[in-house]
Records
---
Amino acid sequence: MKQSPKLKLVGWIYLILAMIFVLGPILVTIAFSFNLDRFSSLPWRGFTLQWYEKMFSNEDIIHSLGNSVMLGVCVSLTAVLLGFTGAYGLRHWKSKWKGAYMLASISPLAVPWTLMGLALLIFFNRINLPMSVVTVWISHVVFTAPLALTIINARMQTIPKSMENAAWDLGAGSLQTMFLVILPQTLPGIVAAALLTFTISFDEFIIAWFVCGFDQTLPVYIYSIIRSGVSPTINAIGTMVFCISITLVSIAQVLQRKKD
Amino acid sequence: MSPLLEPVRHRGASNRSAGWLLPLSGWMVIFYLIPLVFIIGTSFRTMVNYQLTSEFTMQNYLAIFAEPLYWKALRVSLLLAVKVVAITTLIAYPLAMVLVFIVPKRWRTFFLILIIAPFWTSYLIRAYSWFIVLGNNGILNLLLKSLGLIGQPVQILYTGTATTIGLVHYLLPIMTLTIYTTLENIDPKLLEAANDLGAGGLRSFFHVILPLSAGGLVNGMMFIYILAFADFVSPATLGGQTERVFPQLIVDAVQWNINWPLASALSIVMVAAIFLVLLVLSLFRNIGSRENGGSGK
Amino acid sequence: MPEQIDVQLDQVTKRYEGRTVVDRLSLSVERGTFLSILGPSGCGKTTTLRMIGGFITPDEGSVRIAGEDVTDLPPSARSTSMVFQDYALFPHMTVADNIGFGLRMQRVKRPEARERIEKALSMVGLAGYGRRKPSQLSGGQRQRIALARSLVLHPTILLLDEPLGALDAQIRKQMQFELKQLQTSLGQTFVYVTHDQEEAMTMSDRVAIMRGGVIEQLGTPDEVYDHPRTLFVAQFLGECSSVRGRCEENGSFFSDTLGRLHGRITGVPFSGPAVLCIRPENIVFSPRGAERTDHAFSRPAVIRQRMFKGLNTWLCADCCGERIICEVIGKSALREGDEISLSFDPQNAVIVPDPGEEDPAVSGQEVEA
């Protein structure tokens, strides 16, 4: 489509403005995490790392951070495991219900999370499972496993069926084929899914709030602090969370687009 | 020689491998489907002394429909969601167009990552970022003051506007991505043909691009509508006490009243409200495909 | 030494969704034979190959490899090895690991495996390529690695599923030559599936022509070319001119247009509707007045089309309403519109049954290679 330079200019300006809108507040948080002033406002009082020091010396923060990290790793591993086995099963499943199955497994992402959180709270109560990181782990896997399935499945579909036939022909059993032939070739998808699911679990708030009991995750802790107003330590926490999340997400994106 | 394997394995190879689906399916059935069934059941019970009773009753639903507080919250949520969807779409569509038609291919991935990455980071933290920016002494007010546009700080925080901003900010990346994907899938040859037949930029847009993207567009709108209606984070962090949304009332019922049956009933009502609007929206999806030969996905 | 039958298919049948893809097919392959299964797409040749390999189980019938009934055995338990159409090389493994995969499955010890891999690599002319990855190789090289991967296991039979399809014409011709050389030098039994008749004719000791799930004819390339038993076989293997008519009880052919001819009948004598097939290279076009008298059959004709193909020229003439094609080496002085005399030796013309509108294929009969 031939475009006038004027149109192009307008387009780029719009893009830049949109970027400012999307990234601006985040940059503000990062910037103010270094501001001496308690009130996260201008004029700039001075550069400091004290909020970071405060963050690392706060027991509650460290504790909830530890919970979130451990939770993220467990969720990630479980989601990837379920996603991989699911993708492998889908690969060999000959049925017209395949599409319906995939749609159904994705559906948790469209269900209102407040509803899901409450439903899980009631469910765990019913089966007498006490609220803890375990219940959060279970709940997070419900959302992240389908996502892992989608990502890993996309990767797995690029592997031609003749690979398994060749391995079979050369004497490999079912398990050997999966480990020696399919798994290595699916690895980029698996790693991308692992990083993404970790990030989602690490950042997730509302479901965790419903089912975490006394084992606060980091977002739950942050929420309790926000209720009482502005706190500069949150800027530091927020910056740290952003850095972790964006790094992992970018690596995952790069891995996904590699060899596409 | 190669190790011998049972003949049975040979015949049913494809069916047996479907067993790999069991772990995922089992998890989803136990921890997704069953809780959903439970919540429906719970909405018809009552809670006495922090214990669920077993008798069937409609009192929760009756209480909800009788209480004006809930109707108001429903209205607030609905208006908010519609407003958010409209604004997000109006911002996202041109943004996606710019990415597809103006930004050169090499830079697209870069900008896409920049726009999408925030979606995968903590929503709560992002809401808090707006919390800082929109406060009476926040960046926005300071900016407006220094530009001489206002004398007194404008109260944005703790209002519906702040909630709207927070939600739009949250949903913009995903809507942009949806529209971007839809636009990218339009065969560029169609645009060339339209051009060749005399359609300029604006006409190409209305007669070719818009109808062909209608399917994906409506899908995106439906998706963010659900997210907007059911959202708790932005209203709780940025909104005020006067315009409380429905999800906040659900959380109240859980946190302060410890009335799980009521909360369950509220949740079901919310889902029904969301569903009704989606039904209406989906009618538009089909209109797009029949009249204009659009994608109608 | 008694002949060794390496592959024996007995009344093998396979159905998919009500359609019979392979119909009571029987086949024997002797040790050391290069057999090609040739046919149009959908004829069941790949299904047959996969049944030999064990990827598909027949609904009826039995498969024997070197005398042993393997019908219910999976590929990993059979002494067959398949070279796939897309080679199916494991991209995450080196060339050496690829070739050694089967050996690893058989738990062959490292030193011995390494030796065998080296030998396999030199056999396909790629010695020293062990450390490379498949993505670093060209199409032809990948093809050879796939070959080496199968051959290193010393299989009784090597199965090849249109392995040269993805290669450029130049490389393909070279590979055909090398494959044949390899097969001969190893004395290995090859079962090769292809839809390219030229390829099959070039490399094979025996050709099985399949259609509609059945083998229509099996024989050496010369046999099937010069003595086709059915119209399909005659028309599939190269060009031929066909004239419709009747075959009489005494074995002569009669048509309204060409009169009576004493052609050749391959196979069982019959009487009824028939088609006379003549290969272009057996027809002579001469200018009117310069007839050849040594041929028993001669008729006037007019040239309708002239196609110069470089190596040879094809002339298509109208003779009493029939379209006859003649092939001449190099250029021809004849032009469109020329009036010529067409002649051929009737013994070079084959009479085959006319299949009519519906086309019943030959089935159920044992065919030996």
Note: The mean pLDDT of chain B is 82.
---
Amino acid sequence: MREASVPAVIVDGVIVADEWPVMPLPVLDEAVRRQAGKVVLFRLTGEQPYPAERLAMMEIPQGRVLVPLPVWKVHGGSLAGRVAAGEIGICIDTHELVEDLVGSVSDLNAFPVIAVRFERFADGRGYSIATLLRTRYGYRGQLRAVGDVLRDQLFLMRRCGFNAFAVRADRDLAAALQGLKDFSEPYQGAVDEPQPLWRRHPRAQA
Amino acid sequence: MYRYDSYDQRIVDERVAQFRDQTRRYLAGELSEDEFRPLRLQNGLYIQRHAPMLRVAIPYGHLSSRQMRMLAHIARKYDRGYGHFSTRQNIQYNWPALEAVPDILADLASVEMHAIQTSGNCVRNITTDQFAGVAPDEVIDPRPLAEILRQWSTFHPEFALLPRKFKIAVSGSIQDRAVVQMHDIGLEFFRDEAGEVAARVWAGGGLGRTPILGTRIREHLHWQHLLTYCEAILRVYNRHGRRDNAYKARIKILLKALGAEEFSRQVEAEWEHLKGSPNTITRSEFDRVAAYFAPPAYRELPPHDAGFDAALASQPAFAAWVRRCVHAHRWPGYRAVTLSLKPGHRAPGDAADAQMDAVADLAETFSFGELRVSHEQNLILADVELGRLHALWTEARKHGLATPNVGLLTDIICCPGGDFCSLANAPSIPIAQAIQQTFDDLDYLHDIGELELNISGCMNACGHHHVGHIGILGVDKDGSEWYQVSIGGKQGSDASIGSVIGPSFAADEVPGVISRLIEVYIRERHADERFVDTVRRIGSGPFKEHVYQTRIDGEPARA
């Protein structure tokens, strides 16, 4: 357990102080949606739950901050100076489209940090977002998993290009570090190691 | 068959350690129920009615005798002395203790086995033709590419948490025995005009609540691009598949919502970026894996065997077994043999530990120490000499493994149903057994001829009821159990989905319903026409009429 006042984060395998808070979005007064009698837990890809007028009214906190993508899309034009100062990062939700982020900025690498927010750890869309940011869109800065981030997913996340993990606040960060070491030689090429096993090592012959 | 090298072994060993720690943390309260669920599912562990159920992977259904003995050992040591071979060519244990599962996984790892991705919203065990490598109509042996796909899909980091489960089947024969059109991705290998191995790619097939046959989204995919193309399909699905409703989360729903054309366009657009990337399969890796599937040391044998011919002529019981359970082989003087796991007095697909040991012995004595599991839930010895079939039959009979009913009405595909599975609406095993008892006259059974009867205890369709010539589905109506009957389904290259004949039946009516369906078939059939052919020719009308003409056995009114 950590003190709430000293947020920490894993960056490149080391526990460091977290200097990039996510700008909070207002809680929406959405009606509980149900499908087949069950509460809907996931937003559909591309869904836009925040009305534009509400986004327009928001103020961006001072200092380093991760701005949610819908806020960035409305306020980005007025943040050029702060982007140039290196104090603006982006936070994209798993249901948001990575293409929307890419289309809203001339150079992704102007952001020192991009965070992917997992509302639920079981939502694998964040893995494709990370993979695309690292490969197709050439993002080289810090790629951070935030939200429902748990030890047992860290190994997979790192393979998809995440290098920073804001592990859920009620979990032991030091223990979570172990999750990065679950496997030593994965089979397939992915972001962290594009070469598949058979291209990396000579393998046994029949 | 494929054998692990140090890298394969390390991956399964590390998995055992990882799961042992996850189980420990769960039992210590450090992992919540919700957090542990996907972790245990991706290791094949369900929490079921009575106890956890553990599903062990048998990649594309291939086993060595040593592995089979370990499965028997696990049944004895950790379970109640039996296992259940499933329609995905895997084996399930119904009674292990949660605390013992890490030890079971360690035992499995000692014989190059695991339970990785046998459940959960990830890429599942890849299935193929049980006669791969020996079937006379085979064009391409699908196993090397199935193994390459297995390795690629094992812990694929981007596709570990998909909207829903994802099943891939591969086939390389003229007659499709892997039901590729029923899978999320079906790969049908062929040799193209340049003599190269290529695949026709099907996507979006599946059973379950919304049964639908796959759509052919690509006519020609060179084998080297198999992994990157699957990556493109999976990425489109991972990003855009629905996660808000489990019943609408399979790729088939996405494909239908987008339309086949738009879905293919998105896949092709994605693949443009992935084509040629390092996961492109190299010739040397293909050759390396293919070498493990080289034919065994077959003997040069004449195409006929006098002893076999004599036994066939003089022993009708042996002849009946040969007719149903012995299959053509591409090598002269050899045959493939199905050992039926449908004797009628136990659940279809179940095998006792002693039977598993016996099958391991049979595989060593008669078939190069290897065996296979079919999606029809039987066991296969793929390489038996013609002249030794009688000796094999004699031995198999002693262990209750020679019921001559393969492909007949009592060779029922059946899910575990409500007796074990917490998803099921209704039991399926007692229905299978009641039907098997009704049709226990072998002569009548052989006269009825080829008929596939499939039973699922709920619409998740693990028993493949949609593609049974006769399909039975357990349904829940106001809290009681009923059975819906469909006819005209078929697997294979001309697959079709059966149509429901009408209102559902009570459990004890079902054998009578099947009898009436058979009566219509016997009355209407042309020479050499199977049940499903008759249904296709005359339609379901005459069957409905006869089944619903009067109540069956004076039972209460149907729901």
Note: Residues 6 and 17 of chain A are 7 Å apart (CA to CA).
